[in-house]
Amino acid sequence: MSGLDPPGADRPDDANRSYDADRPYDADVLVVGLGPTGDVLSALLAQSGLRVIAIDKSGEVYAAPRAAVFDHEVMRTFQAVGIADEILAASRVAGRYEFVTADGEVLIEFDTALETRSGWAENYVLHQPSVERALRARLAPLGVDARAPATLLDLKEGDAGVDCRLSGPQGEYSLRARWVVGCDGAASRVRELLGIGLFDYQFDEPWLVIDAVADEPGDLPQRIMQLCDPKRPITYLKMCANRYRWEFMLLPGESPAEIATDASIRALLGPWKCFERLKIERRAVYRFHGLVARRWRSGRILLAGDAAHQMPPFAGQGMCAGVRDAVNLAWKLGAVVRGEAAPALLDTYQVEREPHVRAVIEIAIAMGRVVCLLDPAAAAARDAQMLARRAAGERDIALAFPDLKGGLLTDLPGAGTLFPQWVTPVARLDDVLGAGAWLIGRDLPDTAPPGVLTVSIEDPVLAPFAGAVEEWLENHAAKAVLVRPDRYVFGAGSAAALAGQWRAMLNETADLPARNLSD
Length: 519
Ligand SMILES: Cc1cc2nc3c(=O)[nH]c(=O)nc-3n(C[C@H](O)[C@H](O)[C@H](O)COP(=O)(O)OP(=O)(O)OC[C@H]3O[C@@H](n4cnc5c(N)ncnc54)[C@H](O)[C@@H]3O)c2cc1C
What we know:
- This protein has 519 residues and is of the alpha+beta class.
- It is 29% helix and 26% strand.
- The protein is globular and about 70 Å long.
- Among the domains are: 22-90 and 121-196 and 291-362, FAD/NAD(P)-binding domain; 429-511, Glutaredoxin, CATH 3.40.30.
- The model is unreliable at 1-16 and 510-519 (pLDDT under 50).
- Strands 1, 2, 8, 9, 10, 11, 17 and 18 form an eight-stranded mixed beta sheet that branches.
- Helix 1 packs parallel to helix 8 and helix 8 packs antiparallel against helix 9 (347-371).
């Protein structure tokens, strides 16, 4: 299926390394890699009271913009970690996204809704380094021990924790964490040490990415588009403020070195009549591909973000998927470290996230297959078919992602859907109710399960949102809803039954209390 599985054993050859079972812990969780996934995971873990060490091999945030777009659910997460205002200052609502023919006819278009279930606009355009700086700045106030530069060299897992060998400015040292999460990107060292292979979607296209600043944009388009021209497919984005991006597909026979020269870029940008006005910040050739790690957990070590999956950027979802991983994993790690659930709970992470991320990758690849057509006859046929379907009111690709299935969910109404965040001119539901799980409704049990906030529909705190919550419950024929800490619905029904099922499902995974393993 894939040529990417490394040969040899599943796990590193650690037979010769000793493991001291009595060594104390330096951290509940070591997060390896401080890109957006590691930043968000570290922040959420620290917010839930865990001791977190987070490392990155680079002393600086990666300076070149990569992600251009992020979605409402990610904005809701930025709100949860307390940086919504900073992120808004470094982004803007995305507007329309179009796929157009060489003649400028629209094949597909996506409009950005201003209201979504998350209480934010559907999509935002960002400057990734600014967003990462805002995230990084949040870590120390939340109590994260963030170390950069610090590079993970090696891992050794024992019954009680993971010993990690790091190198930093003072040389090599080691620490022990109960859990390790590899958020260390596409070339993940953690994944390599675990010997985990990759499923390959066999989509592999080289593109030149150019990021530029234009203080005088002239008549550069102020939108986002895929120019589906078989002579040279091009992605164009008006980013934030005075930033612009072009992505040019490499044609057969073109080399990455040749296409990235000044002369070549001047020629590529010729039709845009802007080269003289641009300050080029970055030129790099990327291979756009779809890859999924075969396992996301090996004992006490997990993978998240690009370390676990990669996708072409056509759907603007790579970073978003990593942030969703972080949100899904953070509360589960918290419950396990606090002894509210056993390590088996962490197996629901891949069960829930992998089908979702695969669906997103498949949408991104479907978009890529529309764009990356170089055969003029095939492109003409594509244009004719897609324009005809569009004229008939049909839509070729929808940016609609699935609900969660399996994992820690009931089969009750609403389970696996994203619970809405209602917003008033002065308040947002998530800010009012705070972090953790919520049991909202009528006839609430006297004792809530650990970590679950019970909120009566009559509670004054809910007053600004009570009508909307009532309507949601009515639509689901339920008296109550249990919302997980990641804001996905566990189920809707009677409050007592929901509380019982939550307890039972956590207890099913709680027969090996994590604290007993390690204290
Ligand atoms: C051209 C392009 C366009 C894109 N557009 C979008 C988009 O519009 N929307 C979107 O959502 N996504 C987009 N993406 C994808 C997005 O940029 C990535 O998915 C995202 O950056 C992944 O985040 P991450 O934190 O998982 O990994 P990374 O951002 O790669 O971070 C990994 C970190 O781990 C560190 N690290 C690595 N090894 C070690 C080690 N041994 N020890 C310590 N630290 C280590 C690295 O220094 C790095 O900081 C795009 C990507 C590209 C290339």
